[in-house]
Amino acid sequence: MKRLHCIFTVSLLSIMALAVVGSGSVVAAEEIRIGFTPTITGTHAAGGALSVKSIKVALKEINAAGGVNGEKIDLRIIDSQSSNPGALASLQKAVEQENVLALIGCLYSTQVSATSDAIQKYGIPTFIGATNINLTKRGNPWLFRVRPDDSVAAGAMVKYIKEDTKFTKVGILHDTDAFGTGGADLVEKAAKEAGLTVVKREKYGTAEKEFTPLILLIKNAGAEILILYGHEEATALFQRQMRQHGSPFKFLGSPSAASKDALNLAKEAAEGIWAVVDFVPGQTEENKRFAEAYKKEYNENYDSLSVWTYDGLKILANAIKKAGKDRAKIREAILATQGYKGVQGTYSFTPNGDGLSEVSIVQIEKGRPKLLKIVNVGAR
Amino acid sequence: MDWSTNLQMIAAGLAMGSIYALVALGFVLIFNAVNVVNFAQGEFAMVPAFVTVWLMSSLNIPFALTCVIAVIFMGIFGIVFQRIAYYPLRHRSFLPVVISTIGVGIFLKNGAQIIFGAEPLSMPRPTSATALKMLGVFVDPQYVVVILCTLALLGFQYFFFEKTMLGKKMLATAQDKEMARLLGIPVAKMIAITFAYSSILGAAAGILVGPIFFVTKDMGAMLGLKAFCSAILGGFGSVPGAIMGGIFLGVIEVFASYYISSAYRDAFAFIILILVLLLRPQGFFGEKIAEKA
Questions:
Q1: ipTM higher than 0.85?
Q2: What is the CATH number of the domain that holds A271?
Q3: Which residues in A lie closer than 8 A to residue B138 (C-beta atoms)?
């Protein structure tokens, strides 16, 4: 029995030794292995499937153009199961089994939070699409965000009001959930810094139906423009009721105000309102080119929330082209990316790893968002 | 404290209150007839709202005809509901029936999500979307329709129960089933008709609020809960109580939201409910005796 135990220990040790040696040689020859951990199963399965479609357009383009420094990219797609344990497991699998050089990681803030420490421990460059502002501010040097974070939208709303309108009295209305409260906090902070007066800040429960008291409160406080941070249904209802009260103030909505769902619900009540969005489809040449390539590949329009994977893989490929297969050098090359014209906008990385500092202010015209201005809030 | 603001809120509160009152009335009628609380009452408003949206947007049926179809549909629906959720349990105590109605409510809610999807739908408006300007305040024309329809339904109900034989038989059944049976009134049939009528009230509520709000699977839960509160405020079992309770709740909510806190709007309904239960458990219009003899 003791002997068996001994044999077992020895073999276990040798396997571990092999594993250590194995992880030393990071990448197999003649190809560059990149991992991608979308949510293929679980709650966010639909979004996960769309993001796979987007990233595959980038993969095809890069490899068709001869790959990176003569080597093709081998994309390993590993399911992160729409959960935090799933995200962690997919990261471990990507690094320890698939031996990937770098990662296109998760879209959801909670998944990024759950994997952040492990990413730092592995020291692997990871692109993320999550927008919680704190993710890139916790001293993890390996996270690169390729979407505008939540403070960009808030900052851009305020900047637009300050620089492009004559309004100075701002009302803020928000949903009581984390999304609404968080967004409104950022808006209030930015507004105060910009010297705008917040005349009223009010909130409502997600299921609110009757906005008359809130409209009157904001109107009676003398707000010239209202910033609303809420979800689609309440946003659309509010717009309808605001219109019935004779639109006593201008309306500037969070990204959900310009979403397809909100516009379908609000219909003509949304005409002329302003909203902030990550980007407007077709606003740049690169965006139009991607839209065509995507349509040719899948015969459908691309999904706005998936485009970050396309931009992420492109930026990563460019960085590897310059830096070779050394993770630390790749990191430096990513941070050195300035003024890169991607599908979502122009990327200039901050030292924190935030790639995008711009969003678009749109006006709803005939049921579609029309670009008013791309607002860049600069490095934060 | 300017009067136009207050007037504006009274208008909104009256309209919301009328809707609560309609749904509360459904609660009360069924409670009086069979002595159980039908917790699927809110869903009785959600189902016809979906049916109406579907008929209007998918089959392009004009609004008036849609209303007729929805009312007939809900009449049948009420009878089927009664057969499934109440009838098999009619000799059991209060609790199994209540749980059975909760179960059917959950079933309806999720059924609606499977059939109509999770996204809210918007019901085409029979009235103009432009607000009427009355006495210096803006009033959604649909609010006026809601209030008028509620009044008309109340008038009809009064006439029906006081002046028609069928109504009197239903009242007799509600008051004392044994006695009604002895007098030759078909009690089971009367109960079925009560369910049908109360689900038609739900249809009215659903069709009336649909164009103001959006039609979602959760709309019934909100309506049902507020209406339940209204019925208790007024004194459970009392018809005028349910109506006054609903209107009181609608107006109080709007004012509390303006003068106290908008975030806790829903809490006020329940704070008032607790206060009433503590200070006047029989409600505004309730009888002093807790149980009917």
A1: no
A2: 3.40.50.2300
A3: 244-246
